[in-house]
Amino acid sequence: MTSDAHLLLRRIRYLLSFFVVGLVVSGLTAFPIKTEADLLNVHLGRGSSFANTWPAMADWISRVHAGVP
User: Fold this and answer.
1) What is the span of the domain harbouring residue 11?
2) Does one domain contain both 36 and 49?
3) Same domain for 5 and 18?
4) What is the rounded CA–CA span in Å between residue 44 and residue 38?
5) What is the spatial distance between Cα 17 and Cα 37, in angstroms, rounded to a whole number?
6) Using an 8 Å Cβ cutoff, are 45 and 69 in contact?
7) Residue 59 and residue 37 share a domain
8) Residue 33 and residue 20 in contact, taking contact as beta carbons nearer than 8 Å
9) Do residues 40 and 15 share a domain?
10) 23 and 44 assigned to the same domain
């Protein structure tokens, strides 16, 4: 192989590794969605002090929380 081919192969491996790491990170952040939705609803949902300031957002957060199984 020429040095250009080695350089191209190295770049492809780097990009594939970066893509795989990105997929792993995005998958890991999806696991705690129930816990995150619970915390968000407690602090920013209906019945919180935030609901007095921004009621439409508090309603939406509570709706999303109800939709997460």
Assistant:
1) 1-31
2) yes
3) yes
4) 10
5) 31
6) no
7) yes
8) no
9) no
10) no
Q: Scanning the structure block, which residue is given the tokens 């309603």?
A: 59
Is there a single domain that holds both residue 65 and residue 38? Answer: yes
pLDDT digits (tens, 9 = 90+) for 7-52: 999 999 999 999 999 999 888 777 788 998 999 999 999 988 888 8
Name the residue with tokens 């109800």: 66
What pLDDT score does 10 carry?
95
**pLDDT (0 to 100) of residue 26:** 86
pLDDT at 42: 93
Q: Is the dihedral of CA 12, 18, 22, 24 positive or negative?
A: positive
Pair (25, 37) in one structural domain: no
Residues 4 and 17 in one domain: yes
Whole-angstrom CA distances from 48 to 13, 25, 34 are: 49, 32, 19
Q: What's the rounded Cα separation, in Å, for the pair 11 and 23?
A: 18
Q: What phi and psi, each to the nearest 5 degrees, are found at residue 31? A: -65, -45
